[in-house]
Amino acid sequence: MRPTVAVIGAGSWGTTLASRCARHGSTTIWGLEDEVIEEINERRSNSRYLKGFELPTALRATRSMEEATRQAEVIVMAVPSPYFRAVLQQAAPFVRRSIPIVSVAKGLEPESLLRMTEVIAELLPDNPRAVLSGPNLAREIVAGYAAGAVVACRDAAVAEALQGLFKSGLYRVYTTHDVVGVEVAAALKNVVAIAAGMADGVGVGDNTRALVITRGLAELTRLGVAMGGEARTFAGLAGLGDLLATCMSPLSRNRHVGEQLGRGRKLEDIVAEMHMVAEGVHTCGLALELAKRHGVEMPIAREIHRVVHGEITALQAYRGLVRRPPGAET
Amino acid sequence: MRPTVAVIGAGSWGTTLASRCARHGSTTIWGLEDEVIEEINERRSNSRYLKGFELPTALRATRSMEEATRQAEVIVMAVPSPYFRAVLQQAAPFVRRSIPIVSVAKGLEPESLLRMTEVIAELLPDNPRAVLSGPNLAREIVAGYAAGAVVACRDAAVAEALQGLFKSGLYRVYTTHDVVGVEVAAALKNVVAIAAGMADGVGVGDNTRALVITRGLAELTRLGVAMGGEARTFAGLAGLGDLLATCMSPLSRNRHVGEQLGRGRKLEDIVAEMHMVAEGVHTCGLALELAKRHGVEMPIAREIHRVVHGEITALQAYRGLVRRPPGAET
Question: Which domain holds residue A107?
């Protein structure tokens, strides 16, 4: 018995997850753009967001939120974090009270700095909330490469049900109860990705790069623990795993921004030629705001933030970091 | 007040550490090879192990163990793990009971599988024992790049004294009491380095490589915790940090071996053209032996071991790994 699934959001990751769910049970994908919805229904493809892949015939697409969600037994929210609340508000009137809402968005709500499951809790307080996260470049998963992720839910039975829904032989889904840790790690790891890219751009050695990534992850972990997460989640797939894929992938936008900053270029010039957003640029500010609220020191995030805002060069940031006396490791 | 230091071992890392200590206090380096000792004393260089760098004039070199150690207030053991016991046995009669012995060797004693501080404890049970480890490619440190390390000692006061001895503005030394964790992480991380190299060689995607490194580190952590270490040490400089430098450095021998195995080549052919040892090849066997003793599952180490020994191909190993059902992440 497979649940009826509604995937909200027809971008590359939403389309990937919807395709997987549609192989086993009734699945509907909701999107805003008429031409994307029509193409999925009529030509079994989504050339705007997932070019070159055939989608399963069982997958239905719709622009009607009511049609997508009324029968759903699981809702997957594949909407970018800035639009998460507005879209979920549209869905809320149709959603049954008992079904799990799974966030696959990486990021915090602007201004409020709420995690996505906190937004779900505000709008649908009775529904179980979960998160799916990990090193999951959508194109690689559609292409059939092995990958792993964690599904986090406070209710272990719901976590296991969702594990069964998403996992396959090549897509390894582990369970955890640490919702906070997974969301914070996913939302903030791009700060470290920019720092790692910057190390490449400045041309520091392998020792230094390893130092910056390790200590960067350590300071994210400190913040995550202060926010109620668990340290080991940051050493797992949602933290270290996602960070590694980002730091090693030549396709990573955040790593690229860091590298270009490291070479001494200005943020506005880098962003202008990218035609895409590198979320880590904003994440530095969010991380520092959270660090302040929770009384946590984040020297690496602070220096990166100053470089991003043109206050100092990447080289000066590196010099600044080594002026702090080291103490105990943890 | 800087202590009088004896560095035992005149390889690249011993010479690097001795040079640093000699800038601040009386330091003697001990080595076996006449021409290396003479060159250090007469020409302030060690062209065999650290070509192209000038050593401080204050550094004295000797072949006499008695001369090196009799006045020492700290002894740094920079000897490869297979020779560690024999060399320390030579030193033992001259070593004062109260002075710290610092191991900088990465590896376990063959056959006994003892950690280096356990070897020290057998030979010099009254001396405080410590370990220094981290992502420390010697040439980068001599060249003045920033790097970090941890010094581990059960006695916090000794750890802090050693931190003061080794650290500089660009070489960041953190303290920890987790001696076991640091030694196990340092000794076994090359298993994961080979796995990461193999991922490159097979041509799996960035998701898969991130998955293998993260889960590989998780299984090392499980073993380390079973042996009495702490999980967070494995997420620190001696674990993750050292692993990252190894996985990212094009110079890493273990990564190279993994990559060539991933391309389907045979171990003997790879090793024959390297003229150097890649310790990770032996480490797989050690890790599995320890896993057996401590009742820990290590599926990644097991598959890597089978590839190294030609029982299966790297591609088969990857397929084998994804056949295991995933459970809870930790």
Answer: 5-177
